Amino acid sequence: MQDEPIFALDAGSAAPTVRKGNARPAVPKDVQVRVYFRDGWLCRYCHRPVVFAPALKTLAKLVADAEYPRAVAYYNLNYRSDLAPLLDYQAATIDHVEPWSKDGEHGEGNYVTACNKCNMKKSNRSPKAFADEECGKPVKGKYGPPKDWDGFVSVFLVLGKDPGALAASERDWRKAFERYLAERDAIGR
Ligand SMILES: [Zn+2]
After folding, report:
1. Burial 25-34 (b: 16+ CB within 10 A, else e)
2. What is the pTM of this model?
3. Near ion ligand 1, which residues have CB within 5 Å?
């Protein structure tokens, strides 16, 4: 069963750096996790907070398991606007700054966190053209950027403890988060 959004840049274990044909190589989950945390789980284009989609899936499961009698539009594999409106706008995605189709480098330095909407809108335009047309300048908040926003990763980790209840890709995400957070704890950040 497919258990990843159809347009997610999902992970194999290796990090291919050599362009082979026109296929866009998958971005390893460990790399995606580093990019999301590096960017503070904020969209680099519109600066809005993004959310980790599988966390919304665990929330929907929590509600269903508690026999809440109504449907909740928290999660849908394809981030459909009618079935998962938050993900339609704010799902965390990895974007190539220089588009892959225009010879963008396939490496960590060329990846940024983007909300689903910006990623869809940006398509293959150059980052500057996109930023000029769509995004404008960062909103300067009175309080500065959030320090502890994690895209609901904590929800995913706390609610998704039973490996048997997780899809294979979710177990891989768990491991990638645990590795990243353990490293970060070890260096005291
Ligand atoms: Zn955005």
Report:
1. bbbbbbbbbb
2. 0.81
3. 43, 45-46, 115, 118
